[in-house]
Design brief:
This is Si:dkey-34d22.2. By secondary structure, the protein is α/β, with parallel strands linked by helices. Helix content is about 35%, strand content about 15%. It has six helices and five strands. The chain has a five-stranded parallel β-sheet, sandwiched between helices. Helix 5 links the parallel strand 3 and strand 4. About 35% of the residues are buried. Bound molecules: guanosine-5'-diphosphate and magnesium ion. The site of magnesium ion has 3 residues, from helix 1.
Length: about 180
């Protein structure tokens, strides 16, 4: 019987407009913490097109994040998606679409409906999940969904393991963030 256990490390990127809550999602996931006014990533740093190829290098998965209360951040999702897909060719990055700040739904601040987000996700061929870094709702699920999606992609040959990429052979996930 072969009892070999494989551990994979996937490099994952988090993409989306500034202030959608990427840093907050990661903080909630890794430390189970939420800060109302988290140290802001330098303003403007996350502008569309400001990302370089090296940022995506060796990434096999990504969370595409928008803010359910910010229409522009939703409108930019397709641009983020297409930009990355174009840049990583001939490789592929597998995404999960995340509608962030779902806690604000309770205050009727939502401006992007679940239906239209699901429609965009279907168009892009991605799973969709609504999450809140503030309450923790679906945060773990978002990362796990992505990890499972990448693992599935590995088995199906959609993404490939590359020899000798930085980060080493052991561990589960490594994160890159703008
Ligand atoms: N209500 C609410 N606010 C959030 C949530 N996630 C982040 N924020 C707030 O949104 C702002 C921007 O978050 P940040 O994580 O820095 O966004 P980033 O620029 O995408 O990394 C901060 O003031 C956060 O406290 C959330 O799930 N719900
Ligand atoms: Mg940030």
């Amino acid at each position: 019987m072969d009892l070999t256990l494989w551990q994979y490390q996937f490099r994952i990127i988090m993409l989306g407009d500034s202030t959608v809550g990427k840093s907050s999602l990661l903080k909630r996931y890794t430390e189970d913490l939420f800060l109302e006014s988290i140290n802001q990533t330098v303003a403007g740093q996350e502008r569309f097109r400001s990302v370089t190829r090296s940022y995506y290098r060796n990434s096999v998965g990504g969370l595409l994040v928008f803010d359910l209360t910010n229409r522009a951040s939703f409108d930019h999702i397709k641009e983020w998606h297409d930009e990355v897909c174009e840049r990583v060719q001939p490789h592929k990055v597998l995404f999960v679409l995340v509608g962030q700040k779902s806690d604000r739904d309770a205050f009727e601040e939502r401006v992007v409906s679940r239906e239209e987000a699901e429609k965009l996700a279907a168009q892009l061929g991605l799973p969709y999940v609504e999450a809140s870094a503030k309450t923790g709702q679906n945060v773990r699920e978002s990362f796990e969904l992505l990890t499972r999606r990448v693992y599935q992609g590995l088995l199906s040959g959609e993404v490939e393991l590359q020899e000798g990429w930085d980060g080493g052979a052991f561990g589960y996930c490594s994160f890159e963030m703008l």
